[in-house]
Amino acid sequence: MKRYYIEDFVNSRKLAVMDDGDLVDLVIEKNDAFVRIKDIYAGRVERVLPGMEACFVDIGSDISGYLKLGQSSTLKVGDRVLVQVKKSDKENKRLSLDLEISLTGRGLVYIGGLKKPVFSKSIKDSSQRSRIRSILPSPEYLVRTRAQYMLDQDLIKEAGILERDYQDVLDSFKKNRRIGLLRPAQSMVLEYVGDNIGADQDEGSSDEIDRIVYSVYGIEEDFNKDLRAYLKTISSDLLLKLDKKKNTDIFEAYGINTRIGRLLSKRVDTEQGPYIIIDRTEALNIIDVNTGSFVGYSDYETTVTMANKIAAKEIVRQILMRDLSGIILVDFIDMKDKSVRDSLIDIINQGLSVDERKFKVHGYTRLGLLEISRSRKSKSILDYYEDIDPKNLSRIKSLDSVIDEIERRVQIEVYHKQNYDIKLCDILYEYRLVEIEEIFKSCQGMIKKMEVRYNVNIEK
């Protein structure tokens, strides 16, 4: 039975999913004010690129968004447009926008202007498709896998909410001539909760949840209210699973940070003995398989075969947990039997079949390395915790990770020592003064938020 642990810090909100003591999923949502995917904006065309069949749109942000247009588009400079963020890259200051507006529910996605319903490929039962189609109030829906397990009244209720929310967006766009955010995207953490748990726990469509553990700090109750309100829309019974802590570092108290630390380690040991080494670079990911303490059976070839199969299953888990993408090269222990080599490809393919990302196992290279490619969605989860040192290209602790560490130590000062006048040089004792100067300069916005949240004064 799974447990959800939610950490709500000033810099980010995180959700860790634990199953029998193992960390099986991790969601990280930055709390910065930058534009997020699925945000809906009122924008104004500021530049048209006829040769590219595209334009740049001012949405009131620091950077303009790129909007792809069709050949028949009549948009011109100065026109107001209703757009939704498709891709958001803060680091490279790039935004991709879309004229197609969608609102996502647990079983349905409302897409304004859609001519006919689109069903998930996982809904293969024609009777289920007919049932759902008959109760949809309009054809403007993408029907998600979960919909086949939902009751008619729940689907009707959700459709009504989505259409009402969509109409509210249209009304707001028409009434106000300003540009800017009209509707923020749903919290990634809450969206994950909605997609993975619920009262309709059948056919593997939902996680069976024991508890949802989270904490509130000081007098802040915003997330507590949002979480309770959202769960209530799914099922009031889920409120009984909430376990609210007060002023508690959830990830530290329940060992989540220790498990995340293992994700950052290059070496991954399996219980049976074999281990793998994972090297991440800008261009690709390299995974090396070793027998370790695994002594196997009577002959060498059988031992190597078993070690590689154990490693292959762990490699799948690490690809998904670490969110590895791009080119992945796996160096298995040398094998003579082609059928065994092919069986490793089968293990990888089967394990990654649950992946929402596009992937392909290309086979073995001339050097005997198994080549895998996996599409990039955004930065890897591990990139939240690590950066690359431009001087020597080694991996170092990221600024996001440092900000979280500051908040953890501020909590210790406030809740355990009752110290409300804090100096960074005292709590970041492993850093040099020149580094603390740079950290303080780079994190001033987040430090001010900590001062408000914990009612403290933080100096260099």
CATH architectural label of the largest domain: 2-Layer Sandwich
- Helix residue percentage: 25-40%
Q: First CA to last CA: what distance?
A: 45 Å
Query: Which term fits the overall shape?
Result: globular
Rg is 25 Å
**CATH fold-level label of the largest domain:** Nucleotidyltransferase, domain 5
Total helices: the number is: 13
The parts where pLDDT drops under 50 for at least 5 residues are 199-205
Give the overall pLDDT as a whole number. Answer: 89
Number of separate structural domains = 4
Q: Describe the biggest sheet? A: 6 strands, mixed
Compute the number of strand runs.
25
CATH class of the largest domain: Alpha Beta
Order the strands across the largest sheet as they lie in space.
16-17-18-19-21-20
At the fourth level of CATH, the homologous superfamily of the largest domain is ATPase, nucleotide binding domain
**Which structural class is indicated by helix and strand composition?**
alpha+beta
Roughly what fraction of the amino acids lie in strands?
Answer: 25-35%
